[in-house]
Amino acid sequence: MACNRADYLERTVKSVLKYQSSVASKFPLFVSQDGSHPAVKQKALSYDQLTYMQHLDYEPVHAERPGELIAYYKIARHYKWALDGLFYKHKFSRVIILEDDMEIAPDFFDYFEAAAALLDKDKSIMAVSSWNDNGQKQFVHDPKILYRSDFFPGLGWMLARSTWDELSPKWPKAYWDDWLRLQENHKGRQFIRPEVCRTYNFGEHGSSLGQFFKQYLEPIKLNDVPVDWKSMDLSYLMEDKYLKHFADIVKKAKPIHGSDLVLKARNIGGDVRIQYNDQPGFEYIAGQFGIFEEWKDGVPRTAYKGIVVFRYHIPQRIFLVGPDSLKQLGVNDS
To answer: Where is this gene product found (predicted)?
Structure first.
C-alpha cells in the first residue's frame, strides 16, 4: 500500500523481493498506489516482478469531526478499493497487507504460509499478524512462539476472503484499524501474533506523524533467527487447545503484589504474574515496565483474556492479569 513516498516504497519493495523471489509463484506481489504521485508510480512500474494498481479518487473528503486528518479517510478508501480488487477481481483466497514503510524478516513468507492453515481451519481467528506491539528488543526472546490476542495488531497482516466478504460492505470512512478493534466488528474473534516481529516499521514520517516512532517503533526487534515453520506444530493455537495451553503457562507464574513491582520481578527471576484491577491500574503498571499502556474498546494492546505478556530480564515472562482473567482461563488462584 503506497501513496507519496517513493524512497520508502523502494526500501519496502527491496526488502520484500529479497525473500519473495524464491516463493513468487505462491506469493504474487502487488503495489497499490493511492493517488498520482509521479515518482511513486515510476518507482513501482520500474519493477517487473510486481503488478501495479492505481487508486484515483477525486471525490472530496469530508471529515466528520473538526481537526481530523483527511489522510485517515483517504487511507480507509484506498484499503477498501485495493482489497476489493485483490479478492474479487483477482480472486485471491487470502491477502497479506503491507504498507510502504515496512521491512520484512527472512522467514516472513514461511510464517504466513504456516499460519494460513490455522486461518483456514479455525474460524475464531479473524486475521494473522506479523506484529507485536510490545515487540521492542528488551521485551522479546523466543522467535518460535506465537500467541492469540483479542487486540488487532495490524502492521503486516493476512486475512481470508470470507472475512473480507463480511467487512467490505460496512468498511468505515476512516480509522479502519481502530474500527477493526471494536467488539461489534471482530465479534470476539481473535488474532495470531508472534512474540518476535516479522515486520519492522521504519516510517518515521507519515500520517501518524512519528508520534510513537522513537519510543515504540524504532526499538522493535525484527526476527533474524531461522525458524523451520514447515516442521512446527501450531495446533496449540487452535481455539479448542489454546485456552488450556495458555492457562498452564500463566498458572506456573509466581504472583507478586504491592509496590516496587519491577524490583520484585527482577529478584524472582522466573515467570511472574501481576494483577491489575482496572484500566488506570494497568496503565500505571505498564508505565513502570515501559510497555504500551493503550487500550481500545476495553482491550489492552496484545492482550488475550485481559492478560498482557512480555519478557523482562530475558527469558523471564511477566503476565499482567486482569480482574477476571484467571476465571476466564479456568485457573484457580488460591
So the answer is: Golgi apparatus membrane
User: Does 38 share its domain with 125?
Assistant: yes
HEC per residue, the chain: CECCCHHHHHHHHHHHHHHHHHHCCCCCEEEEEECCCHHHHHHHHCCCCEEEEEECCCCCCCCCCCCCCHHHHHHHHHHHHHHHHHHHHCCCCEEEECCCCEEECCCHHHHHHHHHHHHHHCCCEEEEECCCCCCEHHHCCCCCCEEEECCCCCCCEEEEHHHHHHHHHHCCCCCHHHHHCCHHHHCCCEEEEECCECEEECCCCCCCCCCCHHHHHCCECECCCCCCHHHCCCHHHCHHHHHHHHHHHHHHCEEECCCCHHHHHHHHCCCEEEECCCHHHHHHHHHHHCCCCCEECCEECCCECCEEEEECCCCCEEEEECCCHHHHHCCCCC
Domain that holds residue 205: 6-231
pLDDT for the residue 334:
57
In a domain, 324, yes or no: yes
pTM of the predicted protein model: 0.96
Picking from 198, 231, 264, the residue at the C-terminal end of a domain is: 231
Assess if residue 241 is contained within a domain.
Answer: no
Same domain, 139 and 205: yes
Question: Is the residue at 207 inside a domain?
Answer: yes
pLDDT (tens digit per residue) in 311-320: 998 899 999 9
Q: Are 226 and 258 found together in one domain?
A: no
Same domain flag for 42 and 144: yes
Q: Give the active site residues.
A: 177
